[in-house]
Amino acid sequence: MLKNEHKGITGAARGRGAGALQRLLAIALLSLPPLAAAADAPPRVQDIVTPAAVADVVHIQPFTLQEGYVFDWRQERPRVTSGTLAVFKVAPALVYPRDAAEPVLYAGSQTAQRLNHGYESGFVVALIPGDVNLAREPVWFGAADLPEWVNADTISSERAKAQQAGIAPFDESTVRSVTHDRLQSHDLASLLRDHVAEVVIRYAPQERALADTWRLPIAQH
């Protein structure tokens, strides 16, 4: 597993309740399955051709937070107070956990924060900063990198490559059919506990242990 997996979530731990949320997320990391043996390994990351489009979108839901969090999945680390929860159908080889740089998931002019692995289910649950219109903005996997190293220039370059490869936004009717009402949550921890956990269980039941950790009570000090 990437040592930086879920790093974006831990950015939410800054401020009130930081220690408790960090402990909860540490448990979440320990609950995830280990890397498979070499015999079961996917293609080497250098053999994966990018840019690569995601296969489909099956869930879109905007959200608003009363208390924002620092988005660690890009170099500039913007503060997120609203965004888009999305579930994408993907090729498992693109999201197989590796202890190295791996293809970065992009949505329009943002990196997407992957919340689960997705290689067993074929579905990735992600958070995208801001209210992104996926009928106008493409979603794709770019070259292997660490998300926290990606900046605006990288995104612009990767998006140009995606456009050259013919990767287009989703059909408007598809986007409309899978879009749900806006979520209102106090903070990222509440969003994960009250809403995202159910989405993970629905689309990636193999990773239920991850969702269950988000529901653990956090001690108040």
Low-confidence sequence ranges = 1-39
The oligomeric status of these chains comes to single chain
What is the β-strand count? 9
For the largest beta-sheet, the strand count, sense and barrel status come to: 5 strands, mixed
CA-atom Rg in angstroms: 16 Å
Helical segment tally? 7
Principal-axes shape call: globular
Look at the structure and give the mean pLDDT.
85
H and E order: HHEEEHEEEEEHHEHH
What structural category characterises the helix and strand content?
alpha+beta
Question: How would you portray this structure in words?
Answer:
- The longest helix is centred in the last third of the chain and has 16 residues.
- Strand 4 and strand 5 form a beta hairpin.
- This protein has a 5-stranded mixed β-sheet, sandwiched between helices. It has a 4-stranded antiparallel β-sheet with strand order 1-8-4-5, covered by helices on one side.
- The protein is α+β, with helices and mostly antiparallel strands.
What's the helix and strand layout?
Blueprint: H1 7-10, H2 18-31, E1 52-53, E2 56-70, E3 79-89, H3 92-95, E4 102-107, E5 110-111, E6 113-114, E7 123-129, E8 139-145, H4 152-164, H5 172-178, E9 183-185, H6 188-203, H7 208-214
Feature tags:
single chain; 221 residues; alpha+beta; 5-stranded mixed beta sheet; 7 helices; 9 strands; 29% helix; disordered N terminus
Task: Give a quick rundown of the structure.
This protein is of the alpha+beta class and 221 residues long. 29% of the residues lie in helices and 25% in strands.
